[in-house]
Write a sequence for this structure.
């Protein structure tokens, strides 16, 4: 069912958080491009044993090609800011070993290796021009940036204007966070750039942080997660169906324009919407169970009010600089993209 749901709203890319065989096979011959994730539990073995990395790629990636389009392999999720302090040192070695494995199989021109990060890797993000990585993480991030510059792979970051609004509803204008056209712009007094929405400001803070770390060689920033909850607890400001529909609808329109951020206007912004489904068994506040565009039975969680016709989308081929740089093989920037929920609980009879 899922490829049909995805296509119905014009989504061209899907991010998976693991390498579930049934999920990957479901997208065979659909033209939908996948991001496949390496779960945290594999990180130590893959990082310390190149043979394990090669075996993982041979078992979890290679058998599905070329029928299923796999463009990215993400190594873990937000590991640098996770509670497991033992994992961060494994991240870069795992990325290196997986890239070497993919290259040894002749797949490095079509599959890029990256990792996803939380905005919490930043020490400063406002105004965007002051963007800088946390000092305690720089020793880990700097060589990761060098890896991206060398391989031409993008830097994935999870960016949520919702959290900024929730934490400071009196200081962050709702329309600015919702990407509403006509929202009052916010000026960066240092760069003199005016931002019409908070997502662009967050992404540009990452670009400034990359430059401040001394790496400016064409590293592209991709938003690997963003979204807005359609329900929340009493203390979760703005978590409503109406706001979720506005945010995700405005987001899709923004991506469909094929433009970049104010700082990087010539680099079309790729964005993955979180999430495809509501996660009814997920712990935590109510919002955590209500990011989906669809309910678990496949019915819409709300009316998005916007869908793309991929046949009419214009966009340039995705490419990034680097010595043995990644080449997307003609994947277009114009397609909207989605992050599937990390755990999807289908009711009986619909899986």
């Amino acid at each position: 069912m899922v490829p049909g749901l995805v296509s119905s709203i014009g989504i061209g890319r899907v991010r998976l958080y693991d390498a579930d065989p049934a999920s990957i096979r479901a997208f065979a011959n659909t033209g939908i491009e996948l991001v496949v994730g390496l779960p945290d539990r594999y990180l130590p073995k893959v990082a310390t044993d190149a043979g394990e990395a090669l075996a993982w790629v041979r078992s979890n990636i290679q058998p599905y090609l070329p029928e299923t389009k796999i463009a990215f392999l993400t190594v873990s999720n937000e590991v640098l800011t996770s509670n497991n302090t033992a994992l961060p040192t494994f991240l870069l070695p795992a990325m290196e070993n997986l890239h070497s494995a993919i290259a040894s199989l002749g797949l490095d021109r079509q599959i890029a290796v990256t990792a996803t990060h939380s905005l919490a890797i930043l020490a400063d993000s406002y105004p965007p021009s002051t963007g800088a990585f946390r000092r305690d993480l720089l020793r880990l991030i700097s060589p990761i940036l060098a890896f991206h510059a060398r391989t031409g792979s993008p830097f994935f970051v999870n960016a949520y204007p919702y959290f900024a609004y929730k934490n400071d509803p009196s200081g962050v204008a709702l329309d600015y966070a919702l990407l509403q056209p006509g929202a009052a712009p916010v000026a960066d007094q240092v760069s003199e750039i005016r931002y019409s929405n908070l997502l662009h400001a967050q992404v540009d803070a990452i670009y400034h942080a990359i430059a401040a770390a001394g790496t400016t060689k064409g590293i592209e920033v991709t938003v690997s997660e963003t979204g807005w909850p359609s329900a929340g607890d009493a203390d979760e400001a703005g978590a409503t169906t109406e706001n979720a529909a506005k945010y995700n609808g405005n987001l899709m329109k923004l991506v469909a324009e094929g433009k970049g951020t104010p700082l990087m206007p010539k680099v079309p912004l790729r964005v993955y919407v979180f999430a495809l489904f509501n996660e009814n068994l997920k712990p935590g506040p109510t919002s955590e169970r209500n990011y989906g565009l669809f309910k678990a039975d496949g019915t819409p969680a709300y009316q998005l009010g916007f869908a793309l016709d991929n046949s009419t989308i214009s966009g340039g081929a995705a490419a990034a600089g680097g010595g043995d740089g990644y080449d997307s093989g003609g994947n277009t920037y114009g397609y909207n993209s989605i992050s599937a929920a990390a755990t999807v609980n289908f009711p009986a009879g619909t899986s």
